[in-house]
């Protein structure tokens, strides 16, 4: 799909937005997969407040993107992709954390009594 690897892929919001553009599709797919996997990672590591870590990582990503590209991202499609990735990260991370911590909380409540 991609002729050459570009180190700016995670930060590039200036790529020509078209379904036939393979670089755009790689950028979009890598963003969404990274956010999905990060939600699972945060749920496994922190087990609580995944939304807080997700928002912090997203704000850092926007800051680093602005610094790398020397411009604040104003492309609405990029913001839509980032927002959907953030939503995906928060939802899957919080659900995983809820179901894994639910069994931990029941264990703690039984051990207290």
Explain this structure.
The protein is mainly α. The chain has one domain (20-106). The protein has 3 helices and no strands. It is elongated and about 45 Å long. The N and C termini lie far apart (59 Å). Mean pLDDT is 75; it is low at 106-113.
Question: Notable features of this structure?
Answer:
mainly alpha; disordered C terminus; single chain; 0% strand; 113 residues; 72% helix; elongated
Q: What is the element layout, followed by pairings?
A:
Layout: H1 22-45, H2 50-69, H3 76-112
Helix pairs in contact: 1-3, 2-3
Main location: membrane
Transmembrane segments: 24-46, 53-70, 76-99
Subcellular location: Membrane
Q: Based on Cα principal axes, name the global outline.
A: elongated
Radius of gyration, in angstroms, nearest whole number: 18 Å
Termini separation comes to 59 Å
Largest sheet: none
Q: Encode the helix/strand succession as letters.
A: HHH
Which quaternary structure do these chains form?
Answer: single chain
Helical proportion?
A: over 70%
Low-confidence stretches: 106-113
Number of helices: 3
Chain-averaged pLDDT = 75
Number of discrete domains: 1
Q: Say how many strands there are.
A: 0
Strand content: under 5%
Supply the helix-strand structural class: mainly alpha
InterPro entries: Integral_membrane_SYS1-rel
Transmembrane segments: 24-46, 53-70, 76-99
Subcellular location: Membrane
Organism: Gasterosteus aculeatus aculeatus
